[in-house]
């Protein structure tokens, strides 16, 4: 298995500010993902974090709004920039250790934007 | 794009009841995941399966590839099983998630 921690676990932020969420895994992993879960909705993939290169974003998500870093095989950050109330969601980090293995999810970061 | 449908959306059960949650999808897949999400938001992976049946404690997951259907069963349900159960599928694409089934088990 893979043990994933996220910081912060929750935050309340003012509109127009930015928040950086950290994801730390206890072992090296092949793939890291960032998901968003808006209230009452299913999970939506924001991007795949690539080590040493720019993240791969899904349709509807852009780097200026959600910059992502992945400096090594165990750590990634997601920044939610220039926040608005519509960004209030749970943000989840997820990893796959190796090809064909199961996908693990972090505990999530619950964000409320006022 | 794969469409993932779960039923029921909401389920209330008495402690001890046998529970079944269903998941159907529209396009062939390489694997199906059952996930559990507690009120705090964190997600736990329960099963990943591509054929047949898997069992872990009181949880059983089955999949029928031909019918594009999977079920999650909980035997002897307990209030601590109360959570949202999410089905997710993958082929050569990132996971596609169902909307989840909210389960409440009452003592």
Shape of chain A: globular
In N-to-C order, the SSE pattern of chain B is: EEEEEEEEEEE
The amount of beta strand of chain B, in percent, is: over 45%
Class per helix and strand makeup of chain A: mainly beta
Oligomer: heterodimer
Low-confidence spans of chain B = none
Helix content of chain A: under 10%
Element-level helix/strand string of chain A? EEEEEEEEEEE
Give a structural overview.
- The complex is a heterodimer of chains A (114) and B (107).
- Chain A is mainly beta.
- Chain A is 0% helix and 50% strand.
- Chain A has strands at 4-7, 10-13, 19-25, 31-37, 44-49, 56-57, 68-72, 75-80, 89-96, 103-105, 109-113.
- In chain A, the strands form 2 sheets. In chain A, strands 2, 4, 5, 6, 9, 10 and 11 form a 7-stranded mixed sheet that branches. Chain A has a 4-stranded antiparallel sheet with strand order 1-3-8-7, with no helix packed on it.
- The model of chain A has no long low-confidence stretch (mean pLDDT 93).
- With 107 residues, chain B is mainly beta.
- Chain B has strands at 4-7, 10-14, 19-25, 31-37, 43-49, 52-56, 59-64, 69-74, 83-90, 96-97, 101-106.
- In chain B, strands 2, 4, 5, 9, 10 and 11 form a 6-stranded mixed sheet that branches. In chain B, strands 1-3-8-7-6 form a 5-stranded antiparallel sheet, with no helix packed on it.
- In chain B, strand 4 and strand 5 (43-49) form a beta hairpin.
- The A-B interface holds A 33, 37, 41-43, 45, 48, 58, 90, 92, 102-108, 110 and B 33, 35, 40-45, 48, 86, 88, 94-95, 97-100.
Topology:
The complex is a heterodimer of chains A (114) and B (107).
Chain A: E1 4-7, E2 10-13, E3 19-25, E4 31-37, E5 44-49, E6 56-57, E7 68-72, E8 75-80, E9 89-96, E10 103-105, E11 109-113
Parallel strand pairs in A: 2-11
Antiparallel strand pairs in A: 1-3, 3-8, 4-5, 4-9, 5-6, 7-8, 9-10, 9-11
Chain B: E1 4-7, E2 10-14, E3 19-25, E4 31-37, E5 43-49, E6 52-56, E7 59-64, E8 69-74, E9 83-90, E10 96-97, E11 101-106
Parallel strand pairs in B: 2-11
Antiparallel strand pairs in B: 1-3, 3-8, 4-5, 4-9, 6-7, 7-8, 9-10, 9-11
């Amino acid at each position: 298995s893979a043990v994933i921690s996220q910081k912060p676990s929750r935050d309340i932020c003012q509109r127009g500010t930015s928040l950086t969420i950290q994801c730390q895994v206890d072992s090296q992993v092949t793939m890291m993902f960032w998901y968003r879960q808006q209230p009452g909705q299913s999970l939506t993939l924001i991007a795949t974090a690539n080590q040493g290169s720019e993240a791969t974003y899904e349709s509807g998500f852009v780097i200026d709004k959600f910059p992502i870093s992945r400096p090594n095989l165990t750590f990634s950050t997601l920044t939610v920039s220039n926040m608005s109330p519509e960004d209030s969601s749970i943000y989840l980090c997820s990893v796959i250790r190796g090809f064909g293995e199961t996908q693990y999810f972090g505990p999530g970061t619950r964000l409320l934007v006022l | 794009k794969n469409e993932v449908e779960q039923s029921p959306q909401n389920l209330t059960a008495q402690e001890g009841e046998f529970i079944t949650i269903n998941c159907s999808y529209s396009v062939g897949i390489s694997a199906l995941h059952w996930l559990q999400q507690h009120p705090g938001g964190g997600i736990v992976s329960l099963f990943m399966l591509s054929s047949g049946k898997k069992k872990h404690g009181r949880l059983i997951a089955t999949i029928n590839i031909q019918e594009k259907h999977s079920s999650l069963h909980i035997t002897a349900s307990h209030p601590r099983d109360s959570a949202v159960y999410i089905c997710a599928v993958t082929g050569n694409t990132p996971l596609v998630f169902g909307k989840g089934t909210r389960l409440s088990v009452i003592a």
